[in-house]
From TrEMBL:
PANTHER family: PAIRED BOX PROTEIN 3 HOMOLOG, PAIRED BOX PROTEIN PAX-6-RELATED-RELATED. InterPro entries: Homeodomain-like_sf (IPR009057), PAIRED_DNA-bd_dom (IPR043182), Paired_dom (IPR001523), PAX_fam (IPR043565), WH-like_DNA-bd_sf (IPR036388). SMART domains: PAX. This is Gooseberry-neuro-like 2. It holds the Pfam family PAX. The gene is gsb-n-L2. GO terms for cellular component: nucleus. Residues 10-136 form the Paired domain. Gene3D superfamilies: Winged helix-like DNA-binding domain superfamily/Winged helix DNA-binding domain (1.10.10.10). Its main location: nucleus. One of its GO terms (biological process) is periodic partitioning.
Length: 179
DNA sequence: TCCGTGACGGTTGAA
DNA sequence: CCTTCAACCGTCACG
């Protein structure tokens, strides 16, 4: 059985501060907004944490992210990175390297094409190959920089303006609907 | 007391 | 359609 007051749906959980959250899922947008609003208004993080009943670790993280990226939104969850090479191709590259550790990337590319492992047109770039050679890692991760910070309409001036409205009015969320 | 950090248990979604 | 698995989540506890 689960402790605390969980909702019937089993989704809601309550943290040490009495705040509701859903484990594994981002905080709702209006709370993220509020955190940034308050910080912009000069409220200390510890106060924000207590008042909104969000763990200080989370407040810290969200504020930090906002400072770095200018975005209120959580990162992109789930899915896999688009792969430029198939697992099969990666294995071949690995094999070639094992046979001849000093091999150049362009040589590998040539060989992949020559042996018909890949089509000439769709062959991985030399830099892709060298990346695979180097790390055995995945290709580079431009995921974060891809984030488009404009789409939310989260202009700080708007946030501050929100803040100035009387506390009893409903929080004005500028149509920030997650897909 | 405040806050940065990372382990932890969790969910997600393209491949 | 089902499974994988690396990405992110917020909370908690430590320092």
């Amino acid at each position: 059985m689960i402790t605390d007051r969980q909702t019937e749906t089993g989704q809601g959980r309550v943290n040490q501060l009495g705040g509701v959250f859903i484990n594994g899922r981002p905080l709702p947008n209006h709370i993220r907004l509020k955190i940034v609003e308050m910080a912009a208004a000069g409220v200390r993080p510890c106060v924000i944490s207590r008042q909104l009943r969000v763990s200080h670790g989370c407040v810290s993280k969200i504020l930090n992210r906002y400072q770095e990226t200018g975005s209120i939104r959580p990162g992109v969850i789930g899915g896999s990175k688009p792969k430029v090479t198939t697992p099969d191709v990666e294995k071949r590259i690995d094999d070639y390297k094992k046979e001849n550790p000093g091999v150049f990337s362009w040589e590998i590319r040539d060989r992949l094409v020559k042996e018909g492992v890949v089509d000439k047109a769709s062959a991985p770039s030399v830099s892709s190959i060298s990346r695979i050679l180097r790390g055995g890692k995945r290709d580079d991760d431009p995921r974060k920089d891809h984030s488009i910070d404009g789409i939310l309409g989260e202009c700080p001036t708007v946030l501050i303006h929100c803040l100035h409205s009387p506390p009893h009015t409903a929080p004005i969320v500028p149509h920030t609907l997650p897909p």
